Amino acid sequence: MAVVDARGLPLGLSLHSANPAEVRLVHEAFKTIPWQIRPFIRYLIGDKAYDSDALAWELGERYWITLVAPHRKNRKVKTRDGRTLRRCKRRWPVERFFAWLDCFRRLVTRWEYHDHNYLGFLQLASCVILLRRF
Questions:
Q1: Nearby residues of 46 by Cβ (< 8 Å), 6 or more positions away
Q2: Taking a C-beta distance cutoff of 8 angstroms, is the pair 10, 129 a contact?
Q3: What is the extent of the structural domain holding 95?
Q4: Number of domains, the chain
Q5: Phi, psi (5° rounding) for residue 90?
Q6: DSSP labels for 22-37?
Q7: What is the pLDDT of residues 54-93, one digit of tens each?
Q8: β-pairing, 43-45 with 66-68?
Q9: What separation in angstroms does the CA of 53 have from each of 23, 28, 56, 67, 69?
């Protein structure tokens, strides 16, 4: 899980297995963001996996963040109109960040056996990306 800003620069990273749903991992990703930056985050833009009323309510109560995610196809009751969903077009910086990570061969092939080693190299690559942008 990665949390990036509007320019695609990483704010927080967390590493999990592929089994749990992304909705349950959002709070772990937010814990990795420095506490000085958290008050400035207003919107969380996610894909269809983040479409959850419980997650939207909890993010609003705990972090004062508005969740912007398009509806899943099987959603029975539409809870949002299309105005806030225009922000989903701004999701490309997240994809650009993951494309920047593909420049690091050690991360693409995943040679590390232990998770903490892989997370360390992931954080190192994020630092390199940050240094290149400034």
A1: 22, 67, 68, 69, 91
A2: yes
A3: 2-133
A4: 1
A5: -90, 15
A6: HHHHHHHHHHTS-TTT
A7: 888 888 888 888 877 766 666 666 666 555 666 666 778 8
A8: parallel
A9: 10, 18, 5, 9, 11
